[in-house]
Amino acid sequence: MGFFLGVDSGTQGTKTVVVDDQGRVRGRASVGYGLIEGLPRGHMEQHPETWADAMKQTIRGALKDAKADPAKVCAIGVSGQQHGFVPLDEDGAVIRPAKLWNDTSTAEECAMLMETLGGVEEAIRLTGNSIMPGYTAGKILWLRRHEPGNYAKLRHVLLPHDYLNYVLTGEFTMEYGDASGTAFMDVRRRRWCMEVIDAIDPALIEWLPEVRPSDRPAGTVVRSVASELGVGGDVLVAAGGGDNMMGAIGTGNTSPGKVTVSLGTSGTVYAYSDEPVVDPGGEVAAFCDSTGGWLPLVCTMNVTVATEHMRLLLGLSHAGLEDAVSAAPPGCDGLLLLPYLTGERTPNVPHGKGVLYGLTPTCFTAGHLCRAAMEGATMGLNYGFNRLRELGVDPVEVRLTGGGARNKAWRRIAADVFDAEVVTLREEEGAAYGAALQAMWTHRLRRGERVTMSEITDELVEIDEPSRLKPIRRNVETYERLQSTQDRLSRDLRGLFSESG
Q1: What is the bridge-based pairing of β-strands 241-242 and 258-263?
Q2: Are 300 and 344 within 8 A, CB to CB?
């Protein structure tokens, strides 16, 4: 029996799963960490070495939990938080901490790049995407403008999961999926966009790896790391991908007809497509996936961020939060939370702030406040979901993943807000599981098998049927009215957010 490791390196921690050749999770381990503290508002950073240490620790822990012989590990796949900028010098050493996906300090640089290119429409024509603060492009220009000494040392640009692949293999690589979130890759043609690169710095092209297909491995584990982990010297390292790309694999979203919604710290809505799905307005990200297709995606920055703040404020357990939400009526008697606690990406409101709207004596209760946070975060996602529908993404079902999906009250809210059947997966760690399945795919291809990623996920990804919920019509109508109010409130306040900084 062979084993496949899936590593999910995220903002709050790293998780690793051990999967056997039948797709069963045999062991798992996790370790938590936080952001660098004391930075100015909008700056979100972590030390890449933290991710590397956590990856090694959780690999050893998961193998121990599985009681698996490390010598039988065949391949490793790595999922990583998207868009983070890992700057390396000529020796491959980290120059400074990585600026992350939720760092909004680069709004000025993004505006500068858009102006240089000729505006949003031109950026979308060139790459398929606008240039927003979450993406990598603005972070590189920020380093050039604000830390010229560090920028002078820059010789290699990697994304978080690429950095972990580098730690494992010693190779500098990027694959189409994660690279499409940099805002300087042409997603239609799957190649670097020189117009955007030149707008940042013409020298940048020399510091980028070749961008290549996701079925091509990153390499094999170097001897020193193999010794640390106890694995053999010929362990394959798959291309890996961004957490959303790996989450798509882990939730079986590798063919048309399904939408995955991740209810984590941030939230995402995405679907598989056989061809690029480019939003002329730039709100839907026109990403590539990590199987050979495309992954139109919407990301919001405030999902469990909002519910956790409310839960901790009121001193509730996770079960207590669910009870409080269930005690309040759908629609919260008109109370809503505009959940832009850390700014927002979709809609693009980097200076946004949270707003409680509609407070009355009737809805000034713990249950209403908790439900407003949950509903507000879900309607924030639905803003983007509706845009996906306008672009032709029409799902048969919505597959929920992430921590919020464990909450039954939240699953009910999701079904009614999205007006769609929702269901969860047997394996909750979608990104880590997806990374393991991609590793299995890469291993089987290397052995000469003719197998697609979709064939593997159709066989191995299991739905948790008892979790399936259908929308309730009266609730759907309530949320449609509340969604209209939230969307209008968001539009009306954007100018004020910008003025208040």
Answers
A1: unpaired
A2: yes
CB 350 within 8 A of CB 42: yes
CA distances from 423 to 245, 393, 464, 468 (A): 19, 18, 7, 4
50-85: pLDDT as tens digits: 999 999 999 999 999 999 999 999 999 999 999 999
Beta bridge partners of 294: 273, 288
- pTM, rounded to two decimals: 0.90
Scored b (16 or more CB within 10 A) or e, 235-244 reads bbbbbbbbbb
Task: Look at residue 501 and give its three-state secondary structure.
Answer: coil
Structure tokens given for 105: 């300090």
Between CA 110 and CA 132 the distance in angstroms is: 6
DSSP 344: B
- β-bridge partners, 6: 17, 77
d(Cα 298, Cα 348) in Å, to the nearest integer? Answer: 11
- Of 8, 162, 186, 243, which one is the catalytic site residue? 243
Q: What is the CA radius of gyration of the chain?
A: 22
Q: Are 179 and 211 contacting, i.e. CB atoms less than 8 angstroms apart?
A: yes
Active site residue 487: no
pLDDT at 501 over 60: no
Full 3-state SS string of 246-296: HHHHHCCCCCCCEEEEEECCCEEEEECECCCCCCCCCCCEEEECCCCCEEE
Q: What is the DSSP letter of 57?
A: H
Give Cα 314 distance to the centre of its chain.
28
Look up residue 495 and give its two tokens.
Answer: 């100018």
pLDDT digits (tens, 9 = 90+) for 411-430: 999 999 999 999 999 998 88
- The two structure tokens encoding residue 70: 């490390």
Beta strands in 131-289, from DSSP E residues, in sequence order: 156-158, 174-175, 185-186, 191-192, 211-212, 219-220, 236-237, 241-242, 258-263, 267-271, 285-288
Question: Who's near 486: CB < 8 A, 6+ residues apart?
Answer: 336, 338, 376, 379, 380, 383
Question: How many C-beta atoms lie closer than 10 Å to residue 223's C-beta?
Answer: 10
